[in-house]
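Re: the request from the purification team.
They wanted to know what the chain is likely to look like in 3D before they choose a buffer screen. I agreed to run a prediction and write the result into the notebook, where they can find it.
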Amino acid sequence: MNDFDATAARWLSFASDADAVFDDIVKIDASDIEPTVTWGISPDHGIFISENIPDPSKAATPLEKASIEEALQYMKLDAGTPIKGVKIDVAFIGSCTNGRISDFREVAKYISGHKVAAGVQAIVVPGSQIVAIQCEQEGLPEIFRAAGFEWRGAGCSMCLAMNPDKLVGDQLCASSSNRNFKGRQGSSTGRTILMSPVMVAAAAIQGSIADAREVFTLEPQAAVA
């Protein structure tokens, strides 16, 4: 037995016995969970797409109140208003966390027949060279370009404002990356709202933060060969 096999055997030994009895079992139906987006300047500033932007006057503690006020001031959003419908300037699908081949295949199922809204710059960036090659082999770039997205070379891109891919001024970006800190996308006043790749695509097409379940009302197209 090699080191890996020995280590794996040890890990597996920690599993619960087949006849184990648990004090509590929680089952969650994922279909009941709404799409989630951020509204502020930290990944934990998240709400469901149907919810309103937090109101600092309703904060539970002074610290929470100050955090909400700081985020709202930077993001230039109005407390207590719907997050859905907030206009965007840029849409970014990519990053190491959401630039996988599975992400691009999923978005490609839905965007056929749709077009990026006027005034929105939408860019797509594979997370690695291998993913880029897979996408090319499956014809995915053509699907995105036909919908009005810019297909870029593999890399970090707007996740951390690498190369020319940066926000300008206080542009607001719907992004599938994993950080929304102040200035993260290249502008000291640039604003980032995090969401899934399909939600980014919906925002790009709608021109504003949108519920992908409403934008893509038809059944997805057949999987790309």
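For the purification team: Strands lie at 36-38, 46-48, 90-93, 121-124, 150-151, 172-175, 191-194.
Please add any questions underneath this entry.
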